[in-house]
Amino acid sequence: MYNDEIMNKVSRVLTEIRKKVPLVDCITNGVTINDCANILLAFGGSPAMCEAYDEVFDFVKISSALYINLGTLSKEQETADVLASISAKINDVPVVLDPVACGAIPRRFSVINRISEVGRIDVIKGNVGEIKFLAGVDSNVRGVDSLDDGEGVLEACINVANKYKCVVAATGKKDYITDGVKIAIIKNGVEMFTKITGAGCMLGALCGAAAGAYEDKFLSTTAAILSMNLAGEAAYEEAKLPGSFRVKLMDCIYSLTEKRLKEEGKIEWK
């Protein structure tokens, strides 16, 4: 009964996103700006890419959520990230942080800590290597990619959730989500995500939309990751090559239903 009730709540996040059309300000990397904008539209959100230092404080005020992605972190983006997070804290706007390559580039760790100190972080979504690095555990990374086998990832997620007092999601062959107490392990997904650029960035944007539409960030993050994985599975059924898979992924995100989330989600709850 518990699983049925919680899956009803997870699937309801999708309906809330499409009902509320959350405005998500994405300060993201230059490689995936267009991807993040389009997948947010397909999901039911409203994308904005406002990152100008002189505008971002005021724009976050009117946003439903803020998504910060450190993928191509310029000095200008760094200052905008910090200022945007301050505005989010003042104006009670949820923040999703994607700590891209934090294990490979030490400067990014200091930026994350600065955002945590003066702003807010509601969700950290990263790959296994990034999350393990934030937990102070040795991890195997190559640039923005994790080469880690996932051993000890749940413990790392719990550590980071307690450290930053937020929901943490580590993506990989299995996806782990925790608020430090509750745990969800998602077993959906496809390997093809690793063959296209920006799958993680797009997922971060979806987490932003879910956070902007639903109060419970543990459930909203679980719903966003499950949605991406189910869309990926459906896309791969129709498109076995990376280029066509990317196109079908957008279509399948758009076509998602509550029914599919409830019936096809493979989630272990702890």
From TrEMBL:
It catalyses: 5-(2-hydroxyethyl)-4-methylthiazole + ATP = 4-methyl-5-(2-phosphooxyethyl)-thiazole + ADP + H(+). Substrate binds at M49, G198. Its cofactor is Mg(2+). GO terms for biological process: thiamine biosynthetic process; thiamine diphosphate biosynthetic process. ATP binds at K125, T171. CDD domains: THZ_kinase (cd01170). Pathway: Cofactor biosynthesis; thiamine diphosphate biosynthesis; 4-methyl-5-(2-phosphoethyl)-thiazole from 5-(2-hydroxyethyl)-4-methylthiazole: step 1/1. InterPro entries: Hyethyz_kinase, Ribokinase-like. Keywords: ATP-binding, Kinase, Magnesium, Metal-binding, Nucleotide-binding, Thiamine biosynthesis, Transferase. GO terms for molecular function: ATP binding; hydroxyethylthiazole kinase activity; magnesium ion binding. Its EC number is 2.7.1.50. Belongs to the Thz kinase family. Catalyzes the phosphorylation of the hydroxyl group of 4-methyl-5-beta-hydroxyethylthiazole (THZ). This is Hydroxyethylthiazole kinase. The gene is thiM.
